[in-house]
Amino acid sequence: VLFILNGLERLNLDFRLAGTELCCDPSEPVPPSAIVVNLLRKYLLPEASIIVTTRPSAVRRIPGKYVGRYAEICGFSDTNLQKLYFQMRLSQPSCSGQDGVGSSSGEQENLVEMLSRNLERHNQITAACFLPSYCWLVCTTLHFLYFTKMVPPSQTLTGIYTSFLRLNFSGEVLDSTYPSNISMMKYVAKTVGKLAYEGVMSRKTCFSEDDLQQCFEVEMKTESELNLLEVFRSDVFRFFLSPCVQPGKEHTFVFTIPAMQEYLAALYVVLGEKKTLAQRVGKELSEVVGKVSEDVAVVVNIISKVLPLRFLPVLFNLLKIFPRYFSRLSGKDQDAIAHTMAEELFKEEDYYNDDVLDQINSSILGVEGPMRHPDEAPDDEVFELFPIFMGGILSRRNRAILEQLGCSIKNLAAFEIAKAMKKTVIRNSRKGLPPSELMDYLFFLHEFQNERFTAEAIRSLRTVNLSSVKMSPLKCSILASVMGTTSHEVEELNLSSCNLDTSSLRILFAVLLRCKTLHLQLNSLGSDACKEIRDLLLHDKCMVSNLRLTNNPVGEQGAQYLAEALAGNRSLTRLSLLHTALGDRGAEVLAQHLAKNQHLQELNLGYNSLTDTAALQVVEVAKKHATLDKVHLYFNDISEDGMRALDSLRMDRDGVRALVFLTAGTDVSDYWSNILNIVQKNLPFWDRERVRQHLSLILQDLESSRRQTANPWRKAKFLRVESEVKKMLGKLQQGT
């Protein structure tokens, strides 16, 4: 028989004969502790094998003569075991509760490979993954980042970290022999949390022994408190903090997992542990005075009925004022927590960093490219997860888990903090935020898990600019979930250059329906994505009036889907298909379906390799269209005859204007700046040689028209436009 006794530190065993009597009969009724002691003495069932697990501080509670062998379980000593663990863990799509449907084995292998490379060159994360539980945290975080496609996401990052702490510390007390029975997690929040918070505030991740002594308040502790601290340092300290392995910082400590510093700092603040000495003394004094005044007031009230001492109850009632006054002052703590959250969430120095989800991804998988030179100055430390964790810890689910860990956050306190946040967080969010910062704000609202608060915050967002944010499936799910708390119209949603694909459009479908202006340029959206866009435009609740698909490989098949959408759509007034590889066939398909549309006002088909036939066919349909009055056709392969035919169009006579060049007869076109602005914005993404040829032709056309006019005012306008074109050509030739 093998007995496994897990967690010896929870038992107070007495091996003295006077304390625990001998017992060798398994059927004899004795207390559980006596059974365990006699098993370990080998007096009861001497043939049985016994394995005991314990924290280091409790090892000596069993006399050495009863122990055959000591073994310390350290972690993965072989990096190949780490890699095998990651391969097994990441190949299970639902191991962390996520929906991994559709995640390819190739993507999983790529994640394992990137993680392995980072482990090889990043010594600090290698030290962290020495502990198997941190390997679990890394894999669960990767599942969250890469395989979340549900709306709303089934997990939060704060929830992952809170569950991780429950996994390791649920039911654990620091020292069972200590009368107060303080929970392990509560002690960690008060001590390590303070160190983490001081580090966040001073932008520091490395801590000296002096920093530890100061945060643990060693000089102010009693003997029993020092004993508790000793137990903590032997049992738990190395779990959260490990020696720094960077050259030149050998005698300092860092948090084993960097994000854990921000989590514990957030927990320290939300639990209300961030107090001055006066606040701590005031709280203890108010409790003492409150209890004493109640007891004394009862006694005095009884005596005063017999003796003429009616002034005494008045005196002792005055004592009650102090606790009430202090409780009113302590209510200001919630305002301070909300203020800290808003201040950290909207720090202007963090405005142009990557969003936090990309930062987490980089910290786990590393950054591809050349390694930093040892002499190169490191980047400033960034702590943008800190306020997000503060919001996440206040969610109902995380508060329930923390309650099990001995870290209680009352419902009323959470309500008061949320109420105070409306004055600070929502007000600050109304300022224009850069795209990465706006993504962080949306992520904060997702982590907070308060639907009413989120709805109030989102109603104030009429324009959402996430341009150049890498919109992974997780970020799309967060955007859809947060925006889904309301049904208000969105004036403008900018998702240009966001790495969107067909699945992203499916996740965001309900949000896209409510957008008036929709920017989807530079996303490599092909024909499959155009099929989703067709379904979007044909939906009876579609509000999209301005759609920009510039610089996407739409192609002929994509044009077919968009043409079907145009035929049945009633909201779209402007459509930009600039540089979308339509070709003549794609333009002809669009022209065939344009007649069925009754609302389009502007169509951009520039830079699509259109020839005379396709361009003139589009214009002929546009002439008969009820509302279409502007067609962009510049940078196409149109001959001089075709250009003359297009140039002869007149708005008052034909009902449509074709924008092909910067001239209009012997005058400059009213739309010259519009055309040049569009070209300027798209220069980095277009074929430079082809653009140079087109600009050269435009310059020749401008010079020819200038020579034909005698009007000095018009000549001046021509010279101004020519200088802009020459400037653009100069930049192209310089490669800038």
UniProtKB/TrEMBL annotation:
<keyword id="KW-0547">Nucleotide-binding</keyword>
<dbReference type="Pfam" id="PF21402">
    <property type="entry name" value="NLRX1_C"/>
</dbReference>
<dbReference type="InterPro" id="IPR007111">
    <property type="entry name" value="NACHT_NTPase"/>
</dbReference>
<protein>
    <submittedName>
        <fullName>NLR family member X1</fullName>
    </submittedName>
</protein>
<feature type="domain" description="NACHT">
    <location>
        <begin position="1"/>
        <end position="86"/>
    </location>
</feature>
<dbReference type="Pfam" id="PF05729">
    <property type="entry name" value="NACHT"/>
</dbReference>
<dbReference type="InterPro" id="IPR001611">
    <property type="entry name" value="Leu-rich_rpt"/>
</dbReference>
<keyword id="KW-0433">Leucine-rich repeat</keyword>
<dbReference type="InterPro" id="IPR051261">
    <property type="entry name" value="NLR"/>
</dbReference>
<dbReference type="InterPro" id="IPR048900">
    <property type="entry name" value="NLRX1_C"/>
</dbReference>
<dbReference type="GO" id="GO:0005524">
    <property type="term" value="F:ATP binding"/>
</dbReference>
<keyword id="KW-0677">Repeat</keyword>
<dbReference type="Pfam" id="PF13516">
    <property type="entry name" value="LRR_6"/>
</dbReference>
<dbReference type="InterPro" id="IPR032675">
    <property type="entry name" value="LRR_dom_sf"/>
</dbReference>
<keyword id="KW-0067">ATP-binding</keyword>
<feature type="domain" description="NLR family member X1 C-terminal">
    <location>
        <begin position="668"/>
        <end position="729"/>
    </location>
</feature>
